[in-house]
Design a protein that fits this description.
The protein has helices spanning 6-17, 47-57, 72-85, 111-116, 135-138, 172-181, 199-207, 228-234; strands at 24-26, 40-42, 63-65, 89-92, 105-108, 124-128, 144-149, 161-165, 186-190, 211-214, 223-225. By secondary structure, the chain is an alpha/beta fold. Helix 6 crosses helix 7. It is elongated, with a radius of gyration of 20 Å. It has two domains: 6-95 and 218-234; 105-214, Rossmann fold. 29% of the residues are buried. It starts with 5 loop residues before the first helix and ends in a 13-residue tail after the last helix. It binds NADP nicotinamide-adenine-dinucleotide phosphate. Residues 2-5, 25-27, 29, 44-47, 50-51, 67-68, 70-74, 77, 130, 190 line the site of NADP nicotinamide-adenine-dinucleotide phosphate (NAP).
């Protein structure tokens, strides 16, 4: 299982409970990843060839890609390696967020378009996108930025913004407080879907704050389900282990 999401952690619980021989794979992006109830490996495989070698060496029979919807490279490698080896591949992917009444969303296709969508006048921007992609925003020197990161060690230049350290899931009260305390005028976010990171969008709606929402990157076609229960069904497990199917 390729992990790094809340759904992956939930599926790992279910697989451990069902005594499935499974390995959980992390990219190794965060310093203290959530401990999993499955044997865990950490780090990249070395592209498609490395992934192919790994799958063969470990005699893997099924692959579940439960990475984040924006982890497009890993997902694309999984499609390619599994196709080449003839292995069944399932993507566990949460549905994208949909706008509701009161939302002021501007959909953009990628990070560059999100930078271009920032207003002409100085804004106070909650940049909810992770540290790797901050630089092009910082080049827009008229704006002030709030970053929320999991690990310490990343600072913004003085007067350009601030960093808060926190790990999801985030509550609405927390995110309303964040918007108010930092007088946020714009939110930039990826359309990740799911519940853990949704509060910022609800908070933005309640405060009438515009959101620049980055669409998901394209990933080659693959079998996809939206819930842990469906992933268990795909493995032929849900009935035997008393999950929701047929109940
Ligand atoms: P990415 O751009 O698609 O992947 C870059 C490289 O990182 C991959 O080619 C692979 O290296 C390695 N990698 C990624 N996920 C891996 C995994 N689960 N196990 C082993 N190697 C992995 O991915 P990313 O956007 O940097 O995301 C990295 C991880 O963070 C993912 O596991 C994802 O679920 C999680 N995450 C991402 C986001 C996001 O917004 N992108 C948000 C929350 C969590 P090799 O080519 O060497 O195999």
């Amino acid at each position: 299982m390729l992990g790094g999401t809340t759904e992956a952690s939930r599926l790992a619980q279910a697989l451990a409970g069902a005594d499935v021989h499974a390995v959980f794979s992390y990219a190794g992006r965060t310093e203290a990843p959530v401990t999993q109830p499955l044997p865990t490996r950490v780090g990249g495989f070395g592209g498609v060839p490395g992934l192919r070698d790994y799958l063969q060496r470990e005699a893997i029979s099924h692959v579940i890609d439960a990475t984040h919807p924006f982890a497009a490279q890993m997902s694309q490698h999984a499609v390619q390696a599994c196709t080449e080896l003839g292995l069944p591949l399932l993507a566990l992917e949460r549905p994208a967020w949909q706008a509701q009444d009161g939302d002021r969303w501007q959909h953009v296709p990628d990070l560059a378009a999100a930078v271009a969508a920032l207003p002409a006048e100085p804004a106070r921007v909650f940049l909810a996108i992770g540290r790797q992609h901050v630089q092009p925003f910082l080049e827009q020197a008229r704006h002030w930025y709030l970053l929320r990161l999991v690990d310490p060690g990343f600072e913004l230049p003085e007067k350009r913004g601030t960093v808060v350290l926190d790990r999801g899931p985030f509550s609405l009260a927390n995110d309303l407080n964040l918007l108010d305390r930092h007088r946020i005028t714009h939110v930039v976010a990826k359309n990740a879907g799911g519940h853990g990171a949704q509060a910022k969008l609800t908070a933005a709606r309640q405060r009438g704050c515009p959101v620049i929402l980055i669409d998901r990157p394209p990933i080659p076609p693959r079998t996809t389900v939206g819930t842990v229960e469906q992933a268990l069904q795909w493995l032929g497990l849900s009935h035997a282990h008393g999950t929701e199917r047929g109940v």
